[in-house]
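REQUEST ID: PR-0412
SUBMITTED BY: lab tech R.K.
PRIORITY: routine
TASK: structure prediction, single protein chain
INPUT:
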Amino acid sequence: QLGSGKEHHIVSIGAGGSSSVASSISSEIWQWGEISEKFKEQMDTTGMGGRGGSSGGGAERIVTKNRPFLVFKKEKFLSHFRKAASGSGNKKTEKTHVSITETGCRVLGPGVQEDVVKDLVESVRQLQDSIATERAELAQEEGRKQKDETHGKGGDSNLSVLQDLQMAIATLERDIVVAERDVDMLQKNLQSTELRQEHTRSQLKCVMQQATELNEKQDEVALKMFDEKKGTAGRKKLQEKLDEIRKFVDANQSTRESLLEQRTDTDKEKQRTGSQLREAKALQEKLKTKLKTLKDLNSAVSSASGASDSLVRFLQEKTNNFVQHFKGRAAETDFLAAMQEFENDTHFLQKIETRVRDLAATTSCDKAGEIRTKLICDLLQDLISLRRSWNDLLEDRWLKDDLDLSCFFD
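STATUS: complete
OUTPUT:
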């Protein structure tokens, strides 16, 4: 058996259209298929297979091409074939150094001076290393110049905002690719479900038609048996035929019930897949809308002049205020303290929202400024809405205590 035994375990298989090759962990190579059509086995005492025409003196036979044939064993590996040069004095031998990279991996023909080729290859390698080093130094120098120019313009904060936006854009693009893959997979699943539904309907139609024919046949045989006299051979034969038809009717009924159950399961699966597909498409559209907004904002921020752009400073300032106000919050265990904290959060959000509305009411002298103002206001308003929704969820935890009026009646 191919691959039997620990030493003959198959570790790699190459399969083609009409031929295959496998190799074992012990360096054995097997082949079968059209590749062995003209392959001949050397019948010698060692039992090793060899190519046709090889010297051996034994008889040859064509191998069976539809069975794996051993064409190579680890014993056939040849080693210690490099030339050896005698050392001076102590008769020790040292193997000559052989390297194909020194000649550029080229096959040298007769009459070619190997030393000249090695020198040329070494010169080319040194030039390549020198070019790579100079390119790296130029890239570092260019990076330093850009950094100095950025710091000279005061664009450190603007650069940070751009980096954050670009990271957010890259994350959204990756999420959109995942969402598109999910939508494509769900669409294929929905198509497969519809095909199964159609197949089940056609089978159910055939089964119901067959049931109608069996019932008509059963009625016909029963009527003929009623006309026959009791105890006759014809009545007995009709009775056997009627019993056989009843078995077919029972089998038909069982098949119909199975198909109906299968149709029900398929309908449920179609509804579930359709619901998942609608959710995936909605998520995909939502991510695309966010990506468009971030790309517009990134374009607007890129055209701004760094720290001199008051809109970017305003966005950064309000974002930092959000982070500082809500950072390190721990869940309150006292009702009054929790209500006081929610009230402070409400005042804080109203204050931020008032500043955002004031900013949105200001007019800009150019269209690009209006676009930047609208985008920044939309981002901050979304942030405010999300925080309010989260506070509403947290307040629901204290709904029971809030409705407790027993303190007024003590």
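NOTES: The helical segments are 114-152, 156-227, 233-302, 310-326, 335-361, 367-395, 399-402.
REVIEWED BY: pending
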